[in-house]
């Protein structure tokens, strides 16, 4: 009798386990944290700061420059590895990514409002070959316009190992951010003709369009920073409302953003997870940075094709998985029946 009772208990425990697995697969479990990003160890870059450095404790170039002069920027690059490396050192402009953050990566996102840029003033890219454990100094010449410039010109010296990046892509790498983080390092360069100059930040709404990244239609609003100054603490709320009903159909928030001088980014607003009809909609965008406030509004049309693409891929918020609940009810019924039958056998014993 004990053997039979033990078998019944094992069967009951297995039912509980199956129920937990099924329920867990639908309810969801916490995602595993991503591996921490580590700084590149296959190359080093150190700025050799000149006498006109404004911030002596900074690990980047922060320079007051004079109109009509030529500024030498010296960067020491080192190969700490045991094999020869050929590195590429590229002058770049600081820009703003679509995440709403200032970045120092090769990009063509400088706004047309810029008086000048770091790449326009600076000599071209340099290729340097380093033996194992060897270091060399590369020099770039930055020519300041005769009339100088207002505010800040912000850029960087981007050092990369092209061969290592190409090998990573060949072996399955896909994220340019991860590749840059592992196989490249950048030294920022901030140039000022008038370091104490105060400027009023000016933002402007550029073109608004429907984009289809990953076949998922979304509204992309171009935010332009017309000011030659870097700023942070950018908070945003974007709402899309139906022109016909006035009801909100989508919302996207931005937290702790930043923008590089004279740059732009696309503020992306997914169209939500409810079916939408073709027609007119309105984008209302509210941005703040400290005490500064900007409000933009733009009307746009959602075509029948765009509405169909959106409605095809969405999953409504309150959709019901009837088959899941049916399966769950069946498992519960089996468990209740098994517990009742097992209890009855116990009482007979």
List the SSEs and their pairings:
Elements: H1 2-27, E1 44-48, E2 61-64, E3 70-78, E4 85-93, E5 95-96, E6 102-103, H2 118-121, E7 126-130, E8 135-143, E9 152-160, H3 162-170, H4 176-183, E10 184-192, E11 203-211, E12 218-225, E13 231-242, E14 248-259, E15 264-270, E16 279-289, E17 292-302, H5 304-313, H6 322-348
Parallel strand pairs: 2-10
Antiparallel strand pairs: 1-3, 3-8, 4-7, 4-9, 5-6, 9-10, 11-12, 12-15, 13-14, 13-16, 16-17
Helix pairs in contact: 1-6
C-alpha geometry: extended
Rg, Cα atoms, Å: 29 Å
Measured by DSSP, the beta-strand proportion falls in 35-45%
Order of helices and strands: HEEEEEEHEEEHHEEEEEEEEHH
Determine the structural class based on helices, strands and strand pairing.
Answer: alpha+beta
The structural domain count equals: 2
Provide the CATH architecture of the largest domain. Sandwich
How many DSSP E strands? 17
- Unreliable spans are 5-38, 167-175
* Termini Cα gap: 8 Å
CATH top level assignment of the largest domain: Mainly Beta
Query: Could you report the average pLDDT, rounded to the nearest whole number?
Result: 82
Helical stretch count? 6
* Largest sheet composition: 5 strands, mixed
Strands side by side in the biggest sheet: 2-10-9-4-7
Q: Give the helix level as a range of percent.
A: 10-25%
> Looking at this structure, what is the CATH superfamily of the largest domain?
Immunoglobulins
